[in-house]
Amino acid sequence: MDLEVRISEIRAQLEAETNTPPACPPEQQRRWERLRSKYVGREGMVRELFGIVARLPADQKAAAGRRVNEFKAEIEARLNGAAPAPVAAGPAVDKTLPGRAPEPGRRHPVYRTWEEIVRLFQRLGFDVVYGPEIETEYHNFEALNIPLEHPSRDAFDTFYVRKPYLLRSHTSPVQIRTMKERKPPIRVIAPGKVFRPDKPDAGHSPMFHQVEGLMVGEGVTFAKLKGVLDLFAKSMWGPDTKIRFRPSFFPFTEPSAEVDVSCFICGAKGCPACKQSGWMEILGSGMVHPKVLENCGIDPEKNTGFAFGMGIERIAMLKYGIPDIRLFYENHFGFLRQF
Ligand code: PHE
User: Fold this and answer.
1) Which atom of ligand 1 is nearest to the CA of 256?
2) How far is the CA of 180 from the centre of ligand 1 (A)?
3) pLDDT value for 84
4) Is 306 in the pocket of ligand 1 (CB under 6 A)?
5) DSSP code, position 55
6) How far is the CA of 253 from the centre of ligand 1 (A)?
7) Is 191 touching ligand 1 by the criterion CB < 6 Å?
8) What is the separation of C-alpha 254 from the centre of its chain, rounded to a whole number of angstroms?
9) What are the chain's domains?
10) Atom 12 (ligand 1): residue with closest C-alpha?
11) Cross-strand bridge partners of residue 244
12) Distance between Cα 70 and ligand 1 center (Å)
């Protein structure tokens, strides 16, 4: 076998094998190792060339040996050009250490309570509806029978954006929007944020959440309101819970009532949580005022309705025994982890 012929064959093969770029660094590493052993390894092709040299006549051996060594250097140069880049030494990683699990998030107690209330009313056939947080005076007051310049507006102190726009001070404007959009029978529940310029303390926050309930149709009575709220209280605080209605006043309901639940901490015997009264106030309610129905184009001769509104934070505080409303907004992990 002619040495020069074999050298040019091997060169052509090596060129063909190193022409295409490798797919990825590990592939490059594997290819480089394979080619090294194939060409310059102990069983490789250079070794084969030295075999040819060994069989040559003695006077040709020295020159042929140099020729093969030259070619070996050429192969190594070509292989080194295709060598993988050295891997940068990173920080040492101890793969045997236990992993650090991310702490799973959980639902905020206000939102848990929101969902619990909403689900219960959904089971009773109420639709969930939402209204805007920036409202008009008309929806927040006038349509709800709270006239301009009427002293009853003082009870609903309000953040104004720019007249006639304001941050809604209760979820009752959603009643108006719903009655203008839908025809009776109507059964909706409207959760959301409300705003009042109150100085923050254990019981007040300038932003909090309410859920509004509204049912309008033929034959919707105060007895039905009592039935629905009784069910609500029992599902929230247990089957032994009682509710009581106290006469009250809201411009948009007539008659109006404030609703208390029996204190679930002391079983209505009297304790610090219920200020020894055995009862805790949870919501405002009443029969939708005929004027409000009329404002929304609903015939009050044919239809009646009830409405109620409750503060979600207040319900959550009573449910979980939380003493200060500000805890909900400070969001310390120690507090949140308990739910
Ligand atoms: N909107 C009243 C409030 O924020 C609560 C309420 C709603 C009362 C519906 C009666 C009927 O205090």
Assistant:
1) 10
2) 19
3) 67
4) no
5) T
6) 9
7) no
8) 40
9) 3-82 (no CATH), 109-336 (3.30.930.10)
10) 284
11) 260
12) 97
Amino acid at the residue 34: R
Q: With 0-12 CB in 10 A as exposed, 13-18 as middle and 19+ as buried, what is 178?
A: buried
Q: Tell me the CA–centroid distance for residue 213 and ligand 1, in Å.
A: 9
Q: Give 17: exposed, middle or buried? Use CB within 10 Å, 0-12, 13-18, 19+.
A: middle
Ligand 1 site, residue 284, Cβ cutoff 6 A:
yes
Judged against a pLDDT cut of 60, whether residue 155 lies above it is answered with no
Mean model confidence pLDDT for the chain: 90
251 lines ligand 1 (CB under 6 A): no
pLDDT above 80: residue 22: no
If you write DSSP's letter for every residue of 159-209 in order, what string do you get? -EEETTEEE-SSSTHHHHHHHHH--SSEEEEEEEEEE--PPPBTTB-SEEE
Residue nearest to atom 10 of ligand 1 (CA): 285
User: 305 in ligand 1 pocket by Cβ < 6 Å?
Assistant: no
C-alpha 92/C-alpha 37 separation (Å) is: 31
| The one-letter amino acid at 6 | R
pLDDT value of position 190:
98
- Assign 60 to helix, strand or coil: helix
pLDDT of res. 272:
81
DSSP class of 126? P
Is-above-0.85 flag for pTM?
A: no
Question: Atom 2 (ligand 1): residue with closest C-alpha?
Answer: 309
Higher pLDDT, 150 or 41: 41
Q: Which residues lie below 8 Å from residue 180, measured CB to CB, with a gap of 6+? A: 296, 297
Give the nearest ligand 1 atom to 213 CA.
9
Distance CA 253, CA 193 (A): 22
Residue 31 to residues 80, 84, 292, 329: CA-CA distances in angstroms?
Answer: 12, 9, 83, 60
